[in-house]
Design goal:
about 425 residues; alpha/beta; FAD/NAD(P)-binding domain; D-Amino Acid Oxidase, Chain A, domain 2; 2 domains; 6-stranded mixed sheet; 9 helices; 17 strands; about 30% helix; FAD; flavoprotein; 2-polyprenyl-6-methoxyphenol hydroxylase-like FAD-dependent oxidoreductase; monooxygenase activity
Length: about 425
């Protein structure tokens, strides 16, 4: 199937991937509608992609080449242990991931978007409607445009999802995460092994266990060199914030109560070195993200299709968000190439990706229950106990980081024609 006019609502990582996939597959016109007018590359949070998923996605052409990534190989699970500066290692877990800087990943995906794609910034979408023969997009300026297909890559507060699954909204999980990042050269302030500091291997991720939560710390590439990135999960104090309504607090917008609670958690439960690691984060690089999840029965409607977080919101514990969005784009391109109609494309995409989001949500809920809602007594955990605890969370799933795509011939893109 070739030709047609396609709109992609949302111009972030998923949006760029879908726009590129549609252009490669043969769309006549691709328009990206991104509501923000600023630089998305300014978003400096970290994320990780499992090595197997990264290789798979690079092989399909969906993950653009040359994007900066930082190699991780082990994850040390730590717990406070008396006067130990770095804590006791409960488990030294294999961790075959590469970490990314969100902004640099987006920049690479944006650069790889074909030149013929009409990427519009400052184009806020107010609503969409799907019909049997078309889809319509109403923009905030009141104008209405018609397309043959509209892809919702507009995140967890998706306008397109409201048209496909009316009333479906992410649910608050009951806890939040504090996030932060900063240049890794600041770690020098904490000393070296020679003067009482520590040597934190660059390929190690660290998870510190605390009662009712955990904190993941790892390095990511940055625009000006390596960075430290961390995510701390815990129940927040009472602040009066409306967390049942999907939201987040931007960098620099963390309230005094939330900042003080994070400092208390670190001082009370973190080994001293990791208190210092978190403490090096400047206020303007610290923000709060309430944890939500959402599963939908449908990922398609009449001439409408959902991608990434618009289709399902998965708690971050699964480390699968970016991989899932890029896999969605891979499946979309494969479905397009084998379809002879728009209805056929939508049916194939639903069959390929409909269950995936629900399965990832279920796994991430188990992980969240074990690592934030009902944590074990970390001080009593040993390597055998940690291994058994981890297998119980996976419940038959091979690993975190997402599922492998089926090895079908259609998942390999053809050369542009």
């Amino acid at each position: 199937m070739r030709g047609g006019r396609v709109a992609v609502v949302g111009g972030s990582i998923a949006g760029c991937a879908f726009a590129s996939a549609a252009a490669r597959a043969g769309a006549g016109e691709v328009v990206v509608l991104e509501r923000t007018s600023g630089q998305l590359a300014d978003r400096g949070v970290g994320l990780a992609i499992h090595d197997d998923r990264a290789a798979e996605l690079a092989g399909t052409g969906v993950l653009a080449p040359g994007i900066a990534a930082h190699r991780l190989t082990r994850r040390k699970w730590l717990v406070q242990d008396g006067d130990s500066r770095t804590g006791r290692v409960m488990w030294d877990q294999p961790f075959p991931f590469h970490s990314y800087h969100w902004g640099l990943l987006w920049r690479g995906m944006r650069a790889a978007t074909p030149a013929g794609v009409d990427y519009r910034q400052g184009a806020a979408v107010e609503s969409v409607r799907g019909y049997a023969d078309r889809a319509e997009v109403r923009l905030a300026d009141g104008s209405v445009e018609r397309f043959d297909l509209v892809v919702g890559a507009d995140g967890y507060r998706s306008v397109v999802r409201e048209a496909v699954c009316p009333g479906a909204r992410p649910s608050y999980a009951g806890y939040i995460c504090w996030r932060g990042s900063y240049p890794a050269d600041r770690l020098a302030a904490l000393g070296t092994p020679a003067d009482g500091g520590t040597d934190w291997p660059t390929t190690d991720a660290v998870t510190v266990g605390i009662p009712g939560g955990s904190c993941v710390i790892y390095r990511i590439p940055g625009p000006d060199g390596p960075m430290v990135n961390w995510v701390c999960y815990a129940v927040p104090p009472e602040t009066g914030l409306r967390l049942d309504d999907p939201t987040s607090l931007p960098p620099g917008g963390v309230t005094g109560e939330l900042a003080a609670h994070l400092a208390w958690l670190a001082q009370r439960w973190f080994p001293p070195y990791w208190v210092g690691v978190i403490g090096l984060t400047p206020p303007e690089r610290t923000f709060v993200q309430p944890i939500y999840d959402l599963e939908t029965e449908l990922t398609v409607g009449e001439r409408l299709l959902l991608a990434g977080d618009a289709a399902s919101v998965v708690r971050p514990h699964n480390t699968s968000g970016a991989a899932k969005a890029l896999q969605d784009a891979t499946a979309f391109e494969a479905a397009w190439r084998q379809a002879d109609s728009w209805d056929g494309l939508l049916r194939s995409y639903q069959a390929a990706r409909g269950a995936t989001g629900r399965e990832l949500v279920a796994l991430a809920r188990r992980l969240g229950l074990a690592q934030a809602e009902r944590t074990p007594d970390w001080s009593a955990m040993t390597e055998p106990a940690m291994t058994a605890w981890w297998r119980q969370q996976l419940d038959g799933v091979a690993d975190i980081g997402g599922q492998a795509l089926p090895p079908t011939r259609e998942s390999v893109p053809e050369a542009p024609r």
